[in-house]
Amino acid sequence: MAVQLDGKVAVVTGGGSGLGEAMARAFATAGADIAVLDIDEAGADRVAAELAADLGVATTAARVDVGDAESVRQGARHVEATLGGCDVLCANVGVQQFGAIDHLTEHDWQWVLNVNVLGTVRTVREFLPMLRARDGWRRIVVTSSSSALAPSVRLGAYQTSKFAVMGFGETLREELADEGIGVTVLFPGGMVTRHLESSALARPSDLPSTGAQPDDLDAMLAHAQMVDGDVVMPEHAIRDLLDDLEADVPYSLTHGSHRAIYERRRTAMDAAFDRMEEP
User: Fold this and answer.
1) What CATH number is associated with residue 34?
2) In the prediction, which pLDDT does 225 show?
3) What are the angstrom distances between the C-alpha of 71 and each of 9, 22, 84, 85, 263?
4) Alpha-carbon span 193 to 251, nearest angstrom
5) Is residue 200 part of a domain?
6) Which long-range contacts (CB under 8 A, 24 or more apart) does 135-139 make?
């Protein structure tokens, strides 16, 4: 691995499993000390313990619910007290909610947008002062989704939230450019993770029933027309992430066959520019 992060501290939300766990391991392999934050406290503890044992880096773990501002604030204080700061922040969160747009309830929308969008905003807000207090190489990763590039059906709330995360990341990159803090928007595709299970477990028990229907997943899969290579292990998905951060690129794509869908969208947008510019 070309990128060396000895002496750096990487903070990963959603780090207790799946994509977040793979990110944490990649940063630890490069030499960084790791803070694993997750609403699943047992998962966060497990990952932190494994990284410390396997790679000899300093680690810490904490239960953090990014849907709650005070929880994120306490998580940031914990990281500062235990690891002394933050050089790399991965605002990696994404609860999934299936449902046709006319079936999704008000509670579905509020939950998904609060966790995925405001959770990302809260994470950056609380950790940004720590990044600003450090010198040299500093990076922020915000996790959007390949579905923001190639939308499918029955994912209206989730995809809307990931469009918002993309816009937030793009704005953040512009605002922090003069401070030398790079911002990259990550667009992961389908992976072999506990995403659906962890999303169901994270949904507050006091919320009324969702508007999801039994055929939502099948309808999404049929529309997406997924092929071999569209679902991979998380470790494969983030194989280029550290190199992308080293190059300070604005976007990082993990995998998937959605380029043709994205190009149709880009062509349609180019055509709109052409029509607008016609005399």
Assistant:
1) 3.40.50.720
2) 72
3) 20, 23, 19, 18, 40
4) 22
5) yes
6) 136/87, 137/8, 137/87, 138/87, 138/88, 138/180, 138/181, 138/182, 139/87, 139/88, 139/89, 139/181, 139/182, 139/183, 139/184, 139/245, 139/248
Alpha-carbon torsion 229, 213, 114, 203, what sign?
negative
b/e 181-192 (16+ beta carbons within 10 angstroms → b) = bbbbbbbbbbbe
Interhelix angle 119-133/69-83, nearest 10 degrees? 30
Task: Say whether 262 is catalytic.
Answer: no
Task: State residue 224's pLDDT score.
Answer: 77
Q: Domain of 100? A: 9-277
**Locate tokens 């006319």: which residue?**
102
Could you tell me if residue 92 is inside a domain?
A: yes
What's the total number of domains in the chain? 1
Annotated catalytic residue: which of 158, 162, 181, 232?
158
Flag residues of the chain having pLDDT under 50: none
